[in-house]
Fold this protein.
Amino acid sequence: MQVALGFLLLAFSQAVTVIGPGYPPNAVAGGTVVALLHVSSGSVSGIEILQADNPFGDAAKAALSGWGFKSSDDGNVLVVFSFRAPSLYSTGDSTRHLSAAKPVTGLAYPKTVVEPAYPPNSVAEGSAVLRLDVNAEGAVSRTRIVKDLGGITGACVAAAKNWRFVPAINDKGIIIPSEAYAVFVVRRPVVVSKLP
């Protein structure tokens, strides 16, 4: 019964303080980071990086150390970072396929992450954070904005709706709905023009 109660509390974990990571200055392409937060009495008590493209893991971990939840929250929380490639237009497939990691009971795991389109009239950079409901089929069934990034947030919501997950499985082996946080990190695109 205590294990089931832990999963019930996890399902309602709501971040009240979120910090977006900085975009590593030496990164020329985008990347993905999948992290597992251990939450105890609303505080982050541990961070596990389950999968990370270089050089994004350290930036994600540093940001997550400042996250906070309701004081009654305990359990594990999945956070997926999508560092968008710093180009105005995508020059190929904007979908990243992730390899499966060791499953965490009660949590879905991302298998495809889609980058948001960058609105051509925007000059914004920073991060948008969404809370995702993931259904038993592994599709995103609902998105909620936790941290807004102006006009780019709509593109992030549209991208997140196309993410796919390996569905969560409870301790009895039954597929269940779950939640995850998506952090979209966007750097102002680099526009290169040829000099005459």
In short: DSSP finds three helices and 13 strands in the chain. The domain at 2-186 is CATH 3.30.2420.10 (TolA/TonB C-terminal domain). The longest strand covers residues 31-40.
